């Protein structure tokens, strides 16, 4: 970083455009925020590019679905198997489970997903905690009485973690569950938000996270706006909290639009394929 | 004391305003002023207040209709706070049952059967995969007339084969490996369904002879191969098999 010159814009020639002068003389990566620009060039309310698709794997006979969700460089794949008949060991647990859906979650992050390389992440404490958290969220969102006594297995693989991985995982699981036909009360959409220099910012990236910014992950049910997840890392002043929360809510709405669009795209194509097949059969 | 205060409060709150039943005061969002609004009694609505018509494409969480004793959620939909919501992606299907004054609103998805599990009392179709002295292990392939995505395991114990002469019944002389049998689920055991064939209409529906031909029942305990004329004993289900009637020489 080169240090800022003391010279202000008043020392420049009058013909020099005001903002251009500021940018060229004063601005460094460290004080980009004065121009409302974040380290990766986004504005505070700008989200990274979202790519998502449903049904990324071929379906087995036992039903199921899968989804891929990417926001910026954060990539997550979720696969759902089921609903199918429960395993013997789980049926044994008791009659209490008979009128509920059993949900199994397994989260794992690829060993190359973050900057530090790990040998195996399948059973470490962080992954176990993540599976547990995701399970408790989805358990509340499933409509249990529609497929009682059945079992759903959900596997999530985080391919790359570039900030907002928790939110990305939730979105991927929602899409995969919709693809698999698991009865859901509503879309669960999640988004992260942060605050730095008094500016609330949406969709935190890993570069921002590493500077010690607070990270708020918010997950809501899309229609009722009921909060199902709200988690925060690092400290945030309480007076700023409502701003960050509102921004995260806004992000959730935008996320919902993307997810719904993916759904429509996927299912209208499916219907078109079916209609074409029927026409071929008739002729 | 308390009662007098509460009555005072009431009089203050309701100054000059008639307390009518069936109305409530709602703050109007546009003007920011409370306005008198009729409370909608959803339990008495008889006309289907549809937000999504028959055949429309819906997403989870989308409102479908008002729910009360005349309108219910079917498969793929759920009720919450007197409203029917969709639970899966699919098309709305509205079925009317005029006799019971009931309308069922459900969401159906093409090419994806809902999860079905056998319940106690339902008739299932299964294939025998293994038999021991005490029991026959089966794979359930159909529940009633619905084909399952995934097979489930079930067992038939020796005591549950026939209605009469329970102790005389044997697995070896009642079922063969590969037979397709009809059975009724009588219980859920540890990891598999317990089934029974102790009814006339239940038992072996179709069996293949060692020579590879479909066998014909000649009485309710015996089956015969039409080619090799080999006879085996089976607990035959009393069902009319049209293909066998047709193949008989006239």
Automatic annotation (TrEMBL), chain A:
<dbReference type="GO" id="GO:0034475">
    <property type="term" value="P:U4 snRNA 3'-end processing"/>
</dbReference>
<dbReference type="GO" id="GO:0071028">
    <property type="term" value="P:nuclear mRNA surveillance"/>
</dbReference>
<dbReference type="GO" id="GO:0003723">
    <property type="term" value="F:RNA binding"/>
</dbReference>
<keyword id="KW-0271">Exosome</keyword>
<dbReference type="GO" id="GO:0016075">
    <property type="term" value="P:rRNA catabolic process"/>
</dbReference>
<feature type="domain" description="Exoribonuclease phosphorolytic">
    <location>
        <begin position="46"/>
        <end position="183"/>
    </location>
</feature>
<keyword id="KW-0963">Cytoplasm</keyword>
<dbReference type="GO" id="GO:0000176">
    <property type="term" value="C:nuclear exosome (RNase complex)"/>
</dbReference>
<comment type="function">
    <text>Non-catalytic component of the RNA exosome complex which has 3'-&gt;5' exoribonuclease activity and participates in a multitude of cellular RNA processing and degradation events.</text>
</comment>
<comment type="subunit">
    <text>Component of the RNA exosome complex.</text>
</comment>
<comment type="similarity">
    <text>Belongs to the RNase PH family.</text>
</comment>
<dbReference type="InterPro" id="IPR001247">
    <property type="entry name" value="ExoRNase_PH_dom1"/>
</dbReference>
<dbReference type="Pfam" id="PF01138">
    <property type="entry name" value="RNase_PH"/>
</dbReference>
<dbReference type="GO" id="GO:0071051">
    <property type="term" value="P:poly(A)-dependent snoRNA 3'-end processing"/>
</dbReference>
<dbReference type="GO" id="GO:0005730">
    <property type="term" value="C:nucleolus"/>
</dbReference>
<dbReference type="InterPro" id="IPR050080">
    <property type="entry name" value="RNase_PH"/>
</dbReference>
<protein>
    <recommendedName>
        <fullName>Putative exosome complex component RRP41</fullName>
    </recommendedName>
</protein>
<dbReference type="GO" id="GO:0000177">
    <property type="term" value="C:cytoplasmic exosome (RNase complex)"/>
</dbReference>
TrEMBL record, chain B:
<dbReference type="InterPro" id="IPR025721">
    <property type="entry name" value="Exosome_cplx_N_dom"/>
</dbReference>
<keyword id="KW-0271">Exosome</keyword>
<dbReference type="Pfam" id="PF14382">
    <property type="entry name" value="ECR1_N"/>
</dbReference>
<protein>
    <recommendedName>
        <fullName>Exosome complex component N-terminal domain-containing protein</fullName>
    </recommendedName>
</protein>
<dbReference type="GO" id="GO:0005730">
    <property type="term" value="C:nucleolus"/>
</dbReference>
<dbReference type="GO" id="GO:0006396">
    <property type="term" value="P:RNA processing"/>
</dbReference>
<dbReference type="GO" id="GO:0005737">
    <property type="term" value="C:cytoplasm"/>
</dbReference>
<dbReference type="GO" id="GO:0000176">
    <property type="term" value="C:nuclear exosome (RNase complex)"/>
</dbReference>
<dbReference type="InterPro" id="IPR039771">
    <property type="entry name" value="Csl4"/>
</dbReference>
<feature type="domain" description="Exosome complex component N-terminal">
    <location>
        <begin position="57"/>
        <end position="94"/>
    </location>
</feature>
């Amino acid at each position: 970083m080169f240090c800022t010159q003391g010279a202000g814009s008043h020392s420049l020639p009058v013909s020099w455009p005001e903002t251009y002068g500021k940018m060229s003389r004063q601005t460094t990566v460290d004080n980009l925020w004065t121009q409302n620009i974040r380290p990766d060039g986004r504005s505070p309310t700008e989200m990274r590019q979202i790519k998502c698709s449903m049904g990324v794997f071929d379906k087995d006979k036992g039903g199921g679905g899968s989804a891929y969700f990417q926001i910026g460089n954060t990539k997550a794949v979720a696969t759902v198997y089921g609903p199918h008949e429960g395993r013997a060991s789980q049926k044994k647990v008791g009659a209490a489970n008979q009128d509920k859906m059993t949900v199994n979650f397994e989260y794992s992050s690829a060993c190359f997903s973050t900057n530090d390389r790990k040998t195996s992440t399948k059973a470490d404490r962080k992954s176990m905690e993540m599976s547990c958290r995701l399970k408790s969220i989805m358990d509340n969102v499933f409509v249990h009485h529609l497929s009682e006594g059945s079992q759903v297995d959900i596997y999530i693989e985080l391919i790359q973690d570039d900030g907002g991985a928790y939110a990305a995982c939730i979105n991927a699981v929602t899409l995969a569950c919709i693809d698999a036909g698991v009865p859901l009360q509503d879309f669960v959409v999640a988004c992260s938000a942060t605050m730095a220099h008094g500016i609330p910012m949406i969709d935190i990236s890993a570069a921002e996270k590493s500077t010690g910014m607070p990270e708020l992950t918010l997950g809501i049910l899309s229609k009722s706006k009921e909060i199902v997840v709200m988690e925060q890392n690092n400290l945030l002043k309480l007076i700023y909290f409502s701003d960050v929360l509102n921004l995260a809510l806004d992000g959730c709405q935008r996320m919902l639009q993307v997810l719904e669009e993916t759904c429509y795209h996927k299912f209208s194509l499916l219907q078109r394929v079916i209609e074409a097949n029927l026409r071929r059969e008739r002729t | 004391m308390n009662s007098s205060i509460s009555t005072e409060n009431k009089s203050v709150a309701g100054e000059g305003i008639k307390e009518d039943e069936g109305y409530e005061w709602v703050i109007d969002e546009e003007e920011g002023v409370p306005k008198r609004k009729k409370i909608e009694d959803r339990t008495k609505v008889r006309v289907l207040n549809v937000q999504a018509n028959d055949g429309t494409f819906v997403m989870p969480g989308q409102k479908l209709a008002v729910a009360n004793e005349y309108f219910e959620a079917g498969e793929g939909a759920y009720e919450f706070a007197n409203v029917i919501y969709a639970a899966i992606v699919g098309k709305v299907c509205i079925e009317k049952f005029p006799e019971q004054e009931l309308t069922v609103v459900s969401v159906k998805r093409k090419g994806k059967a809902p999860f079905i599990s056998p319940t106690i009392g339902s008739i299932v179709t299964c294939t025998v995969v293994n038999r021991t002295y005490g029991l026959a292990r089966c794979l359930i392939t159909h529940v009633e007339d619905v084909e399952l995505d995934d097979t489930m395991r079930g067992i038939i114990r020796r005591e549950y084969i026939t209605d009469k002469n329970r102790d005389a019944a044997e697995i070896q002389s009642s079922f063969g490996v590969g037979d397709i049998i009809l059975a009724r689920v009588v219980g859920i055991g540890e990891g598999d369904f317990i089934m029974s064939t102790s009814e006339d209409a239940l038992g072996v529906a179709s069996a293949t002879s060692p020579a590879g031909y479909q066998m014909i029942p000649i009485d309710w305990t015996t089956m015969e191969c039409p080619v090799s004329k080999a006879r085996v004993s089976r607990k035959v289900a009393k069902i009319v098999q049209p293909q066998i009637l047709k193949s008989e020489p006239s």
